[in-house]
Amino acid sequence: MATVLTSPSFLIILYLLSIPLKFAQDVNFIYNGFHQANLHLDGIAKIHPNGLLQLTNTSNQQVGYAFHPLPLKFNTTSTSSLTPSLSFSTNFVFAIVPQIPNLGGHGLTFTISPSWDFTHAVTSQFLGLFNSKDDGLPANHILAIELDTLLNPELLDINKNHVGIDVNGVISVESAPASYIPNKEGKNISLDLLSGNPMHLWIDYDEAEKLLNVTLAPTSSSRPDQPLLSRPIDLSRVLLDSMYIGFTAATGGATSDHYILGWSFNKSGQAQSLDVSKLPSLPRLRKRKVKVGQVIMILLVAVLLVIVLIMIIGAAYISRRKKYEELREEWEREYGPHRFIYKNLYKATKGFSDKGLLGSGGFGKVYRGILPSSNVQIAVKRVSHDSKQGLKEFVAEIISMGRLRHRNLVQLLGYCRRRGELLLVYDYMPNGSLDKFLYDNEKPNLNWIQRFRILRGVASGLLYLHEEWEQVVLHRDVKASNVLLDAELNGRLGDFGLARLYDHGTNPQTTHVVGTVGYLAPELTRTGRATTCTDVFAFGAFMLEVACGRRPIDRRLPEEVILVDWVFGCWKKGAILDASDPRLEGNYVMEEMELVLKLGLLCSHSMPAARPSMRQVMQFLDGNADLPELPYDNACFSNFTSTETSEILLSIPSSYGNGSAPSSSTTDSILKSGR
Predict the structure, then answer these.
(1) Which of 646, 424, 455 is nearest to 543 (CA)?
(2) Cα(16)–Cα(476) distance, rounded to whole angstroms?
(3) Which of 95, 226, 555, 596 is the most buried (most CB within 10 A)?
(4) 125 and 213 share one domain
(5) Does the keyword Nucleotide-binding apply (predicted)?
(6) Which of 323-332, 440-449, 523-532 has the lowest mean pLDDT?
């Protein structure tokens, strides 16, 4: 008999029968402090002499583990009533003390795992449970309740102070901000996990309802009736038969002391309540001793940061001042009301954006803008003016012309000087320049009524400049591209960039030859003297241009055509109306068309004295005087060819509605002689 009892077979059977006892033991325990607890510790976890379990300290990139030493039976395959179910209940008191207030990392978990071996796991956001490769895999068979104190957007964290339910990975299947609802008050109260104060957490799973509840509260409060998290979950698909229970905590770049003060667990019913009065106390917060060298270093860094900040602010201020810096001299004070602030013009044109570019020419570019203070639309012309010689006189004349007031003149509102640049501010003309309507097929065709009204308007404006204002103004660049159209298609003479002023009774002339080829009077090219008669000559070319729909000199045809010669030829043949613009299709008043063509020829007379004044031009257009007969002598009219041009360089202006100024090869020269 003794031989039978000591046989190897009997010993094996006895060992197998003892295995369930090992699994079943210690399924109901309570630790009010851990000084007598038999826990499996790993990482930097340790138990203090007073029974306080510390999972991590303020070391960077560390992890700590504390697990119940024996596995528990989570068996769902057997139908025996003696087999434990998946239901369990646990509660524990914890505290998280950050190294730096409001900055801790990364949190702690209560974990149910098939093993306490986490050598493959990493710290920081993986909480010592997973790594980047196995995170989220169903083969992990891990359930964790996390107390997270750091926001990781890549893990879909809701904030840096939440409680979450993790299944097989660190992305929570359910989470909520740390808070509780007291039974008496009935309103949600937030809790700060990084406060350093002890808090109580309850975790309960009901296998029958397949419901996991997580409840949080401060140790000063009783357990709330309403859980913080309530998640339907079938743990039979997550947990294995043999599982370990315990805690993990991890630090990263930011650190915290993670403590567990007490722990109660029950695998077969409700876990016992912890006695808060018997729990170990937390260590006193010790003020870190700062060495003198550290203080000096901190002060030096702070001073350096202040100096760098001052330098950045100073550089930004200087850069901003340079951005809006203007040239302003003492003599300009008298022109104050007419001077614009560059900053306002910069904002009005949105930084002189190309989207607001209206046109460009020899003098510069023109931009549309809206004054922020008055919401008035303006046109700003940027003119290069590097030479200081005569600048005072030039600005004085610009400001004087700003006092011109006539319904057929584009109002010059003022100016601004900045470095080598002069900015002229005009009224904005929404329909742009007349030449676009005459030559651009995308623009609508102007009928005769509109054209005749424009001619009368420009003639009225020139009369005002020559005779009706307090001084005589020579425009010196009358042409279709400098006639701008307002919203009602009324013609307004603009671009006074070349204009000059003279007192009445003096000899109104200048020897600075400027203008545009085709509009230059022959005596101007011979003598270089501009007078009111040269303005009349340019107006005559302009009249023929509007009536015929052709440029004064047309180089697009196989042979160069001089408009004055061509109209004069039609008149000599007795068919002057043949010169009218074909786009009009004969829809015009014949008397008015004939008057405009003949008057255009008369204004183009080669002898200045034979040309009418602008007052006489207005009388002819208004029908208050009869037009004299034209001479039949070809020599009485200008007859230009390109072979007779000289190489005198011109300053060619452009209206802000132009945008198609003639090229320097054709317009930066003038006719040296004329007939």
Answers:
(1) 455
(2) 118
(3) 596
(4) yes
(5) yes
(6) 323-332
Domain shared by 521 and 413, yes or no:
no
Describe the crossing of helices 590-603 and 563-572 by its angle, rounded to 10 degrees.
120
Which residue type occupies 413? L
CA neighbor of 127 nearest in space, from 191, 214, 62, 172: 62
Decide if 377 is inside a domain. yes
What CATH number has the domain bearing residue 164?
Answer: 2.60.120.200
User: Nearest to residue 151, comparing CAs of 142, 160, 143?
Assistant: 160
Sign of the alpha-carbon dihedral angle for 395, 401, 403, 409: negative
Owning domain of residue 373: 326-428
Q: Which residues pair with 211 in a beta bridge?
A: 206, 232
Nearest to 110 by CA among 244, 254, 277: 244
To the query of whether residue 477 is one of the catalytic residues in this protein, the response is yes
Instruction: List CB contacts of 562: < 8 A, sequence separation 6 or more.
Output: 552, 553, 638, 639, 640, 641
Do residues 389 and 464 share a domain?
A: no
Q: Which of 106, 18, 14 is nearest to 60 (CA)?
A: 106
Sign of CA dihedral 256, 259, 265, 267: positive
In a domain, 320, yes or no: no
Sign of CA dihedral 11, 16, 22, 25: negative
Answer yes or no: is 381 a known binding residue: yes
Q: Which two tokens stand for residue 92?
A: 């524990």
Look up residue 14 and give its two tokens: 């006895």
Choosing from 42, 166, 204, 477, which is the catalytic residue?
A: 477
Tokens of 173: 């299947």
Residue with tokens 């397949």: 210
Say whether pTM exceeds 0.85.
Answer: no
Token pair in block for residue 49: 């002499």
Counting Cα atoms < 13 Å in the Cβ hemisphere of 483 gives 29
Dump pLDDT digits (tens) for 418-456.
766 788 888 899 998 999 999 988 888 999 999 999 999
Distance CA 641, CA 235 (A): 101
Question: What's the rounded Cα separation, in Å, for the pair 97 and 101?
Answer: 8
Token digits for 527?
A: 């003598």
The neighbouring-strand residues paired with 204 are: 89, 213
Q: Is the peptide bond before 512 cis (omega within 30 degrees of 0)?
A: no
